[in-house]
């Protein structure tokens, strides 16, 4: 996977390992970059579950970030376009297993 150095710099990631690929996909590393993206996805849909047939509010601490695309060797793309907000029930049902994840808090001040 090749890094797009200019796009990566413009993205202003906190982790030096996070990057934008030459194909435009984003691969995030670190608690801050993941937390900021999770927060952006949550805000984009005002906390509404995007996996259930009837949208419903899912609190920040209870909701989960569902990745819709795998691109680089099976690695999940962390782009906004490849992320959905979901309730735990729908996320577990979709994958047919419990998803392991960490509750990354957004740290916008660190990303600016």
How do the strands and helices of this protein lay out in sequence?
Blueprint: H1 5-11, E1 19-20, E2 26-27, H2 31-44, E3 64-67, E4 70-72, E5 75-76, E6 83-86, H3 88-95, H4 108-111
Antiparallel strand pairs: 1-2, 3-6, 4-5
List its salient traits.
112 residues; alpha+beta; two-stranded antiparallel ribbon; 4 helices
Largest β sheet strand count, sense and barrel closure: 2 strands, antiparallel
Total E-strand runs: 6
| Domain tally | 1
Task: Give the CA-CA distance, first to last residue.
Answer: 26 Å
Shape: globular
Strands ordered across the widest β-sheet: 1-2
Summarize the structure in short.
The chain has helices at residues 5-11, 31-44, 88-95, 108-111; strands at residues 19-20, 26-27, 64-67, 70-72, 75-76, 83-86. With 112 residues, it is of the alpha+beta class.
């Amino acid at each position: 996977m090749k890094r797009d150095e200019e796009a990566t710099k413009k993205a202003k990631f906190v982790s030096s390992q996070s990057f934008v690929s030459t194909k435009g996909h984003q691969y995030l590393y670190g608690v801050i970059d993941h937390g900021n993206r999770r927060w952006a996805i949550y805000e984009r849909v005002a906390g509404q579950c995007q996996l259930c047939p009837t949208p419903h509010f899912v609190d920040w601490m209870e909701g989960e970030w569902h990745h819709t695309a795998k691109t680089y060797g099976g690695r999940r793309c962390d782009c906004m376009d490849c992320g959905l907000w979901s309730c735990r029930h729908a996320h577990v049902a979709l994958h047919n297993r419990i998803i392991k994840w960490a509750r990354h808090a957004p740290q916008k001040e660190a990303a600016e």
